[in-house]
Amino acid sequence: MTRNSFLLCFVAFGLGVSCAPRPKLVYVDIERAALPSESNFNPRSLSTRPAPIPGKTSEIGGLPKRVVSFPVSGDPLREARAVMAKSEQDAVREIAQRLSKTYLSEVNDLFEKKKREIEPLQRESLDKVFIELRKRFEVYAERRGPLLVVLASKVGWPDPDPGSLIEPDESNPRRLGAFKVAKSLREQIKALDTQYDKDIKGLFASQKAGAEQAMADLSLQIEELRAKKLEVAEAEARKQVESTRDQIHSLVVGDPSVTLDSVPKKEVAFPSASPRVLPRLQPIAHDSSLQEAKADLAVWLAQNRYELAPKGRARDATKDFIEWRNRKVIGR
User: Fold this and answer.
1) What pTM did the predictor assign?
2) Distance from the CA of 328 to the CA of which of 52, 153, 209, 292 falls in 20 to 30 A?
């Protein structure tokens, strides 16, 4: 299109006049096009059995093992280490408290179940003992828990030197100071354990006679189970935090890389299939054929930019339309 033609079209567009070519006029004998004799579509051909579809096996390629690096350095790395260290202590304390609550609840349920099996006369005296014992246990746990968390943050978990036997040389004041702090914490924890054991034995010493003997034995077993569950909760909390720390260890200690395992190749089998035979189609009524032919005519006119004209006023394109319909039916 020349520049002048483009300007004329632009002006014509502003005036609401289209520059597109006008549709061509054609005549179509719709009655003839709708006749079944003019169609290559044979319903009987659908009653023959199609050929079966053979099976096929395809292979999906695998991926090799690879390492992805994430370079990190400077202040962000130091800040990440500090945040991680503090988060570990908080996480251990929070997880241990939740696990302890769950485990102690289970122990209490067990005790209640066993207590119901004891004679009613034995319950009154033992209830008093357990009320006092529970108070002392809560005080013991509140004092022991924070000391254990601080000790673990100093020397790790589990304690590599529970007896404080490996004393560093005096030439290293920093390590010597840390050893003394850890030793003091161990002594405090041991003193609490000793006092708690003494309290338990003292409370149940008066119950080890007569009708209260069975209940006292049960109570002692329950308290030992409580102490054990407390240790289990602390160990599981430390394990969960350490497993998370291992996953992000390479990103905060100077080895910022992640190893992705290889993915093996895999074969996928597609089974063979036998297409279902369709039933014979019934002949279509003339009215339905005419309506379908008119709908197809509208599509054909639009695709070819034709405009329908009366007979004798334009080229007879009936044959072209019939051939187009036959190709459309075959391609369905």
Assistant:
1) 0.35
2) 52
